Amino acid sequence: MTCQSGRSYTIKVGDTLYIIAQNELGDGNRWREILKSSGTSFTEEEASNLQLGQEVCIPQTNTTPPTPPTPSPNEGKLFVGYFQSWSEKWGSEPNQLQLANLPSYVNMVIVSFMKPDATYGGNLSLAGTGLDFSADGSVVKGAIALLKQRNPNTKVLVAVGGATYHNFAGLNVGAIASVVKDFGFDGVDIDYEPFNTAQCSSTNGKISCTSDTEYRRIVNEIRQALPRPYLVTLAAWSIGAYGEGEWTNSKPQGALTGLLLNLLQSSDANKIDLLNVMSYDASPEYKPQEALVAYQNYFKGKIVMGVEVPPEGWGGHIYTIPEVRNLVNAVREKNAAGMMLWSIQKQPNGTPSDNNPSAQMIAKEICQQLSLGNCDLPLS
């Protein structure tokens, strides 16, 4: 068949309507304008099950885009979910991956983790990047595009660093930027965790850390490689805003108390779009509500507060559902940007309960408290 209007396009490996619209019309959100060869529109199910060799019809590029839906009053709050690439199942098609099927209430997805010193040879090869998907790169790219197609308000970032990848001295911003652009990511989350190498100390009430210069360099180089509208976010250390002023003696104290203070009190803070505060792994004496106020004192941009599916990696604390609810209430009262979850795929030991909640239980609580809608939809 030939197109009744517009021009013909043949589906190739890794294609989604979102990718085609991004490449051919300049805006992935215009995917609904692409028609079947019969001249009819694609249903959601049909758009998720394109066939190799299938003909679709692309409108002329001067077609007026459809009027976007009116945003709901609650769309301003963020629910950030970290997505473990190593936990993703294998699939030969984008719609088979969990990444493509995440619910719309998780409106910022951060795919973990890319090496700071990554190498990238192009052609959507994941070798050398640190990302540990079992699926081919083309399938992962398609899953990202399909998720955005289904949930147009969702942003997808790639996290660089984490607890395993520490070689920020060898930061390869060229490779990172190329992966972001080739795979359709919306930006980078800098997860700088120098817990084995950095030391912070106080002199005359002022915190300085051995990592200050490197941290600012990382932010500057990544922002230069990915100017706005790409997003640059930080995974902020739990006690990273403690150590000065009224938070001089805030607990717990540690080697990285005040890790972010030098950065956040410099002009380089303006290069950051969002702080994802890792308000966990800090022992039961840690008060996340206090940490939120401290971070808001130093950073005037968007801040989300994080919770971890138990057990936490260090310190012995467990976020119960009532504690999650209390933190969300603090976020709302302090007009913070939202909440973060580490991680979407992590599961607790033993039977899930309000005192030992699963990722799904925490996600539903956050969704309901932030009034994000469709809160019964599963994470997987």
Automatic annotation (TrEMBL):
It catalyses: Random endo-hydrolysis of N-acetyl-beta-D-glucosaminide (1->4)-beta-linkages in chitin and chitodextrins. It is an enzyme of class 3 (hydrolase). Keywords: Glycosidase, Hydrolase. Residues 7-58 form the LysM domain. Residues 77-360 form the GH18 domain. CDD domains: GH18_chitinase-like (cd00598). InterPro entries: Chitinase_II/V-like_cat, GH, Glyco_hydro18_cat, Glyco_hydro_18_chit_AS, Glycosyl_Hydrlase_18, LysM, LysM_dom_sf. Pfam families: Glyco_hydro_18 (PF00704). The keyword Hydrolase applies. GO terms for cellular component: extracellular region. One of its GO terms (biological process) is carbohydrate metabolic process. Its EC number is 3.2.1.14. It comes from the Bacteria. One of its GO terms (molecular function) is endochitinase activity. Belongs to the glycosyl hydrolase 18 family. This is chitinase. The lineage of its organism: Bacteria, Bacillati, Cyanobacteriota, Cyanophyceae, Nostocales.
